[in-house]
Amino acid sequence: MRSVRARAALGATLVVAVALTVAGLAVLAVLRGNLTDRAGLEAEVAAREVAGELALGTAYAELEPGDEDTHPVQVTDEAGRVVAVSKDLEAISGTGTSGVVPVSPAPAPGPGDGDDDDDDGGHDPARGEVSTDAPDFANGTATVDGETADYRFASVEATTEQDITLTVHAGAPLAAEQEAVNTVRTSMLTGLPLMLLVVAGVTWLVTRRALRPVEGIRRELAAITASEDLGRRVPEPGSRDEIARLARTTNETLTVLEASVDRQRRFVADASHELRSPIASLRTQLEVGAAHPELLDVPGAVADTVRLQALAADLLLLARLDAGERPGLTPVDLGALVREEVSQRAADRIPPEVSVAAAGPLEVTGSRGQLARVVGNLLDNAERHAARSVGVCVRADGGDVLVEVTDDGSGVPEAEHDRIFERFVRLDDARSRDDGGAGLGLAIARDVASRHGGTLTVGTAPGGGALFTLRLPGREPAAGRG
Questions:
Q1: Backbone phi, then psi, for 288, in 5-degree steps?
Q2: In this structure, what is the dihedral angle of CA atoms 187, 190, 196, 202, given to the nearest 10 degrees?
Q3: Kind of pairing between the strands at 353-357 and 390-397
Q4: Confidence at residue 472, expressed as pLDDT on a 0 to 100 scale
Q5: pLDDT of 132-166, one tens digit each?
């Protein structure tokens, strides 16, 4: 089944069917048990009446053992012989013996040897008694006057005046119990299909109503896919259920996707614009050199080629970062890495001053090449804006390693602290492209820092210039390492 409504209706119907079946069986069991106990109590009363007569010394011939229509009675002695039965009892089962014909002659209860009370000197003969123990119960059948039926038998013991132990088996009919159970069973079997149809129908309608907003979301998403218009949004129902949250999450995803696509488009446009300038300059120089070799500006062509190569490398690195490339797991000593990057700038316009505070481990885990690019970009940015000095400090801060790069330039306005990390952003728009770069260095640095589980922030240096702080999680020492 491909329909959620159909699966929900079927599932609910099966659950209700199982629940009703179990509940019905439990009801039938309880009903049967109660009615059986009631029949047993009725049989016990009839058995105790007969046992009471026997205990009082009533002779077998004078017994009236139960109502032959409703309470068949069988009396047996200690040897299991039948000594008395109710009238018209033709067959019996469930009492331990199937006999229905009293033994002849049967030992009759009575006053023993026939002496009267005056001859024994006023002696009071022994009295019989009825057992007060709980009777034994059993189900069986009895045939009375040609009709066989099911009965619940109770067995009660009685002791006569002659100390003879007799067992009275009296039965109560189970017809009422069987009729009641059959009636309830028939009602359940008749009502169960109707109940299941109602459950299936209601579940179908409720599920259909509940899933109606989902269909609206699906249609709108299909329309967005067909039109490629990421500015559209799916309808959000007014409810506060899971479907409303799904709609809101879908709209939030569309918003993020729209922003990502717009950013990608701007990136492509900016990259095309940035690439156009060095390519056009290089082409012009080569065309002039081809026509007039003496006018060929070789250093300018080399500079444009280097700038074009650097820009292509930056764009390639950004593309790899956007694709989710994970950094390596190589241990990197940031102190040594900073010294190495600074040594390559010994002949620069403003050689940076380096301070490495090795109060703790300065190792991090990641890609040495990418981290070197971050440090290089920060140094390039600081040298570009510094007036006379650039400082670099590497130190441990708790479990992190910090690289702080400062300059004595004009600093970064607080309102621009986040904007300078966007791609192709240059705060000094009057600056030439050759001197200012393409505006990708800080964006690359923050992306690499984020991929390494760290952060890159900008603040104000003590001297009033810019302070860039790279924070990376320190590398945990290996086990057993001193």
A1: -65, -40
A2: -90
A3: parallel
A4: 92
A5: 888 889 999 999 888 899 999 999 998 888 888 89
For 463-482, give one letter per residue: b (16+ CB within 10 A) or e: eebbbbbbbbebbeeeeeee
As a whole number, the mean pLDDT across the chain is 81
Among 108-112, 128-132, 329-333, the minimum mean pLDDT is found in: 108-112
Do 87 and 62 form a contact (C-beta atoms < 8 A)? Answer: no
3-class DSSP state of 458: strand
pTM: 0.50
- For the stretch 372-397, what's the b/e string if a residue is b when 16 or more beta carbons lie within 10 angstroms of its beta carbon? bbbbbbbbbbbbbbbeebbbbbbbbe
Amino acid identity of residue 22, one-letter, is: V
**CB proximity list for 238: less than 8 A, separation 6 or greater:** 244
Residue for token pair 């013991």: 157
Are the CB atoms for 331 and 363 separated by under 8 Å? Answer: yes
Give which of 425, 443, 433, 426 is closest to 303, Cα–Cα: 433
Structure tokens at 45: 């009363």
- Helix (H) or strand (E) run with residue 380 in it: helix 368-385
- Cα separation, 437 vs 384, in Å, equals 10
DSSP-derived secondary structure for 236-271: --SS-SHHHHHHHHHHHHHHHHHHHHHHHHHHHHHH
